[in-house]
């Protein structure tokens, strides 16, 4: 697609191919009062395998933005009816920050100060109309690259290095926000702490690196056992926390019991070793004002489970 109309370095070509494969979900919104510009630019960008939305004015564009997830790049005109490009960019930036959405401005204007005006009010890039196909591609590509770097950075801050589950930092930040909402709306909010039983024996018997693989496998299993609505986090060591917002209490209890049984009945295979271990779960089904207090409460349940012989769910 893109690669054939110019000479690109190997690395750049690879990054484009990767993007074409990965970013089927990435969407571009073009805002311009010229229907011919919209049509021709849409065609160009679609060759790049990005989904394109078009709007003929800022108001329409804001509506499209609100109703569609994953719009990552906006290409906007300056002179337009209803609201001009500057007003449009300011409105967009009220709700969408630069780490989630890039704005590229295109205009025929020859005003020397216009690019800086746009950049100051929240645009990322400025292109004079009459740009070549290649320049458009390269600019969009560069802007998407920056968004991907932000994404990578957020992942590194929010995810646990060993398991790629959410880490403690993310759990407390997002969990407390969700808990606040649940308290305001008087909705169910539960947490479960899961700790592997006698994990030290696994480390002592098979070595720390086998232990690490086991922790990773448990993490992946837990992640796949819940849907996107639950927060599945690694609290540390071989201890995990699940947050259930607005869920039915009986269904959660059944689910946790089911999980306990799965570990009881199955073993994990690491290299030539078969590891047999169980898990203990402590829960908190009562809302407190902070996640910290809920975790303490669940930890009491976990302690009881360990005390009473492990391999059980306590609330
Ligand atoms: P209990 O049933 O009481 O939970 O016994 P336990 O042996 O699992 O004890 P505890 O939960 O207190 O300790 C967990 C052990 O897990 C301690 C440590 O050796 C090991 N551990 C903690 N983090 C890691 C890790 O990242 N990798 C590996 N391989 N082991 C870890
Ligand atoms: Mg115009
Ligand atoms: Mg343990
Ligand atoms: Mg532990």
UniProtKB/TrEMBL annotation:
Instruction: List modified residues, type 4-aspartylphosphate.
Output: 77
Q: What is its EC number?
A: 2.7.7.65
Q: Which reaction does it catalyse?
A: 2 GTP = 3',3'-c-di-GMP + 2 diphosphate
Q: Please indicate if the UniProt record lists Phosphoprotein as a keyword.
A: yes
Q: Where is the GGDEF domain?
A: 187-315
Which parts of the sequence belong to the Response regulatory domain? 27-144
**One of the protein's GO biological processes:** phosphorelay signal transduction system
Tell me the GO molecular function terms.
diguanylate cyclase activity
Alphabetically sorted, this entry's keywords are:
Phosphoprotein
Classify the source by domain of life: Bacteria
* Stated name of the protein: diguanylate cyclase
What organism does this protein naturally occur in? Halarcobacter ebronensis
